[in-house]
Write a structure and sequence with these properties.
alpha/beta; Rossmann fold; four-stranded parallel sheet; 38% helix
């Protein structure tokens, strides 16, 4: 089994969207055993942002409330995928990549911005998650 943890700052927008996108894509796949979850570097138990919920719902993805989870313990068997390249330095693990590694650009935090910005963020995350999934398929 492959374990993947998406990581952003607060675990209320980007990493949750990435988690839900990948889980949805995996429902349509056969043969890849992947556990997907998300955490934040500075999470403090907040709910998913309302704009993230709206965008997820627009795309037919689960948007139920969930409390943000702080990244505390690093598991050497988990692949960590950070939203911005600088976040790598906060994860003491050899198995950490960024969206910049996947698609050539960071996924900037949309927190506090309008729904249009959240939609753009969703599109960028979806692009990166699809690249990731294709790479994983090639390795399996």
């Amino acid at each position: 089994m492959i374990k993947i943890c998406f990581v952003c700052t607060g675990n209320t927008c980007r990493s949750v969207m990435a988690e839900r996108i990948l889980k949805n894509l995996l429902k349509k796949q056969n043969g890849i055993d992947i556990k997907v979850f998300s955490k934040g570097l500075r999470s403090n138990g907040e709910n998913i942002s309302s704009s993230a919920k709206i965008v997820l719902k627009t795309h037919g993805l689960p948007c139920a409330n969930r409390k943000s989870v702080k990244l505390k313990k690093i598991d050497k068997n988990t692949l960590y995928i950070v939203m911005e390249d600088f976040m790598k330095k906060f994860i003491d693990c050899l198995k950490v990549i960024s969206f910049k590694d996947l698609i050539g650009q960071d996924v900037v935090d949309p927190y506090g911005k309008d729904e249009k910005e959240y939609e753009s963020t969703f599109q960028l995350i979806e692009k990166g998650v699809k690249v990731l999934l294709n790479k994983l398929k090639m390795e399996c």
